[in-house]
Write a structure and sequence with these properties.
homodimer; DNA-binding; two-stranded antiparallel sheet; globular
Chain lengths: 156, 156
DNA sequence: ACTAAATAGTGCGATATCGTATTAATATCA
DNA sequence: TGATATTAATACGATATCGCACTATTTAGT
């Protein structure tokens, strides 16, 4: 592979890595206590996508190792933001349910993030963001498909 | 801020976060020993951008806290991939220089990553990537500028 | 020159992230 | 049905990441 082509992809991943770091730092700064972006993201996912997901489904959705999701969920459960119950369809598995406190926390977190998001929406054209999401989703899916299918969660 | 607009930015950051995680996992899997993507990225930066940077400059370049960069550099120094010397222009500061071993390691890491990158270049159109980098760089710069200028490294 | 404020790097403790190995339950199949 | 492989979750240990606080040095202001 020639050097120019290679550095193109490195630059892409570098920019994306930095944006991920900056956006996460921005959100972390608005979240209380020991709660950080992954906690909020999981709550948000449970509301936006579907309640009652299994830990493994959540790990896949965020592309983190199972053990990382176990840890994140333990933090949410300790604060009473989710309830983790046995999966009635599979004795090995669990289901993660939002609690009322979890919903309230998610709403208050969004409120806390709102000023930053509003500022951002003034600085970054929404249509430009929409045009980005398509290709980014495509790249995400390709990267996802590249992983060893035997390892759906990277450490299984 | 209305909910649609808000979820647009959340989706952007979510996709970017997942791609960052996947690309990092992909690279980590090809790096030896205890070396991970940040180690490689720093070496790559020293070659591509400029040798002899200070730790703080590197922390800013990657938008990580100073302490994180200290830790990353310690790992590189322990393996003899960089030499950290006093900054002749500032007694508080240091300068990070690549060693020959560092260059060799960077080259071998690139060689190890090459198959993945080649696969990627077949699956993701290079021109599409080029069209992404501009807007992403812009967003990165805006996010960067949004941070409190008093805290150039998030924990200063 | 002297003092006060700012800056560069790091020690330290807390938490996050990850890989490996383990346990329990389920699925496969002879 | 019984043996084997697969799967979901977690315990555990190692390292990464981060914020806070501290030291040494430099810079600014008088």
């Amino acid at each position: 592979m020639d050097s120019d082509r290679r550095s193109l992809y490195f630059r892409l991943f570098n920019e994306i890595g930095i944006i991920a770091q900056l956006s996460r730092a921005m959100m972390d700064a608005r979240l209380p206590d020991g709660l950080i972006t992954p906690h909020f993201s999981v709550l948000n996912h449970l509301i936006r996508v579907a309640d009652g997901r299994t830990p493994l489904e959540l790990a896949r959705a965020f592309q983190v190792p199972k053990t990382t999701m176990t840890h994140t969920l333990a933090g949410l459960e300790a604060r009473g933001f989710v309830a983790i119950k046995p999966n009635p369809e599979d004795g090995r598995s669990k289901c993660v349910w939002l609690t009322e406190a979890g919903r309230r926390f998610r709403d208050s977190a969004i409120a806390a993030l709102d000023p930053d998001m509003t500022t951002l929406s003034r600085l970054v054209d929404g249509e430009k963001v929409e045009r980005l999401i398509g290709p980014l989703t495509e790249i995400r899916q390709i990267l996802d498909a590249q992983r060893d299918p035997k390892k759906p969660s990277r450490d299984a």
